[in-house]
Amino acid sequence: MTRTGVTPLxxxxxxxxxxxxxxxxxxxxxxxxxxxxLLGCPGGRSLVSTYRALAGTSMRGVVIVMMDEYVVDGSxxxxxxxxxxxxxxxxxLAGPLGISPDDIWVPDPRDPAAYDERIDASGGIDVFxxxxxxxxxxxxxxxxxxxxDGRTAVVRLAESTRRDxxxxxxxxxxxxxxxxxxxxxxxxxxxxxxxxRLVLHGADKRxxxxxxxxxxxFDPAWPASVVHEHDGxxxxxxxxxxx
Length: 243
Hints:
Layout: E1 2-4, E2 7-12, H1 15-32, E3 37-41, H2 48-54, E4 62-66, E5 68-72, E6 75-76, H3 85-97, E7 104-105, H4 113-121, E8 127-130, E9 153-156, H5 159-168, E10 181-184, H6 187-191, E11 195-200, H7 206-213, E12 233-238
Parallel strand pairs: 2-12, 3-4, 3-8, 4-7, 8-11, 11-12
Antiparallel strand pairs: 1-2, 5-6, 5-10, 9-10
Helix pairs in contact: 1-2, 2-3
């Protein structure tokens, strides 16, 4: 393990090696904890190799805390929509990992504050898995300028984030189809987690990794740099993403 700025950096050959190593760490921490284990998870591409590697491991006691959800007409996006975060969690996490749908948590735009309250009442998030937007460093739906102490709220998606989502969800035929609003955890919610693991892999994330590694403290213009404000954070890269 090496260090960049104040945040430890781990490097892997490829996304599959990274995912297997991260899944092994999560599995070990789940086994070591007696009781409920809250695992913060993003949708999208960055953690798919980790989720795949977790299949077949014991996830007893695990609660999946999803980072965000799209908002459609003031309500959470229906899970049958291709971009629904709940739908993603049901396909990629609940079924493959044997987790009850009741243990898949997603924020509700009709009462965002209740999400942080629920997390706090359950003892807090043990490990928060994070991805980073390729073009703007967004975490969840938190674009440039998001406050470091922010909590779960309905937010307007930055245009750069919406463009990134065209790649994440190729079923979108045009930018106009990408929702303009979502409900998202805040950077304050992220910082409250006991451990953070920020994952970047693939050549398309190389520029994002370069920007992140050039920083040694939080920069509001690059939300993923929140990891530099957390003593329990690590940055995990594969060689293709290494600048």
